[in-house]
Amino acid sequence: MHFVPVIMSGGVGSRLWPVSRETHPKPFMSLPDGQNLIQKTFLRASGLDGVSEVLTVTNRELFFKTEDEYRKVGSEDTPLRYVLEPFGRNTSAAVAAAALQLNEAYGPDTLMLVLAADHLIQDETAFSAAVNKAKEIASQGWLVTFGIEPQYPETGFGYIEADKANTLASGYRVARFVEKPNLETAKGYLEAGRYYWNSGMFCFPVGLVIEELREHAPDVMETVAATLAASRSSQGEAYQCLSLDPDQFSDVPDISIDYALMERSSKVAVVPCDIGWSDIGSWNAMSELTEADANGNRCEGEVLVHEARNNYVYSPERLTALVGIEDLLVVDTPDAVLIAHKDHAQDVKQIVKHLKANEHDAHLLHRTVHRPWGTYTTLEQGHRFKMKRIEVKPGASLSLQMHHHRSEHWIVVSGMARVTNGEQEFYLDTNESTFIRAGHNHRLANPGVIPLVLIEVQSGDYLGEDDIVRFEDTYGRVDEQ
């Protein structure tokens, strides 16, 4: 029997702004130990017994970034498959697409383990044991969910009520799913002893989840199947990395797998587990990963504290000082600072809504932006000019492109650059420079074995990132204007 973990990486994590943004969402946030959540999820998934491959469902703009993160933790020995979404359509679409792909690759008896890329699990041994229990129940024809043993009356999670009169191996049939409760209701759930936090992790036989989705959410299955057919038709049959057709995918209903299937099916079981699980849903949750000092302050970075208590500070790039304050969250990034009371940690998402409504880039981008070929960092910007630090990976190349409205000066700081400028192609060594005139076709590449670092100074009447025409591109972006 084939067994495939499916990593769903689609959430933005707006309550963790300003570190989490649309182009650098929560799964890519570094934790105090240096790894990020998507790396931890991959290692946890690929380390399970009997894994045939790891399938990741993510936004196509995050594909190269995801590959980079997997590569950093040693993904070479694990077969990988990707389904790339043009935009988010919730978890039922991701599960349906993954199930249809795996059904075609391995058949209906394949077991798929659905994991969120942005959850933290600290007890790997208990997690592995819970997965083995879920596999046993799922192989008997059940849709299995993982219920987290509640530690306190949490009001921010949905709950699963187990039918403890109906035992299934090491789990129970599910009596019902319940929405996020108020505090008194949550206390009652804790005392009852049959309610579990809904973790959003599942284990299914591929054939069963397809059959049940066809019965309970036929609109999801029909539109996802049509999307896969159109996508395969345009990309051929070698689809280890399948990019979903945006026109077809726009017809897929935006609904979670819980609403579309788990709350409707009569074939749902729960495996209770205590695995050190957290969805890292706010800065309060993130702060718990950092040890507190004698006054309850939790600090990451260079932080000075005087007469301050029970604060959390994230300031990895510059000195931050606290004087005489209590119960605050302070999160410092190069282009935005968050200061919030701990009691209002969930309200950070309202700031993100405001930024989006006003089309402010701070909801979307950091000053450092990741691209398939490397990164660029905006150092300074003013009237008719912008300065960037550009780093190109060894062997990587930007697209052959042209800008209508801006010219560029390139100064090599370290490494070697191969430059195409109009009809010319030449090399620039460290401390050398060149000028790219507006309207000229140009390309930057790193032919060396160390990163290429250069400073780019743009000048012109329009400096937006959309002033670009691509003629050739290694990463399939020629049609993006």
UniProtKB/TrEMBL annotation:
Keywords: GTP-binding, Isomerase, Nucleotide-binding, Nucleotidyltransferase, Transferase. Residues 359-473 form the Mannose-6-phosphate isomerase type II C-terminal domain. One of its GO terms (molecular function) is mannose-6-phosphate isomerase activity. Residues 302-355 form the MannoseP isomerase/GMP-like beta-helix domain. It comes from the Bacteria. It holds the Pfam family NTP_transferase. CDD domains: cupin_PMI_typeII_C, GDP-M1P_Guanylyltransferase. Residues 5-294 form the Nucleotidyl transferase domain. The keyword Metal-binding does not apply. It catalyses: alpha-D-mannose 1-phosphate + GTP + H(+) = GDP-alpha-D-mannose + diphosphate. Pathway: Nucleotide-sugar biosynthesis; GDP-alpha-D-mannose biosynthesis; GDP-alpha-D-mannose from alpha-D-mannose 1-phosphate (GTP route): step 1/1. Its EC number is 2.7.7.13. Signal peptide: none annotated. It is an enzyme of class 2 (transferase). NCBIfam families: GMP_PMI. Belongs to the mannose-6-phosphate isomerase type 2 family. PANTHER family: MANNOSE-1-PHOSPHATE GUANYLYLTRANSFERASE. This is mannose-1-phosphate guanylyltransferase. The lineage of its organism: Bacteria, Pseudomonadati, Pseudomonadota, Gammaproteobacteria, Oceanospirillales.
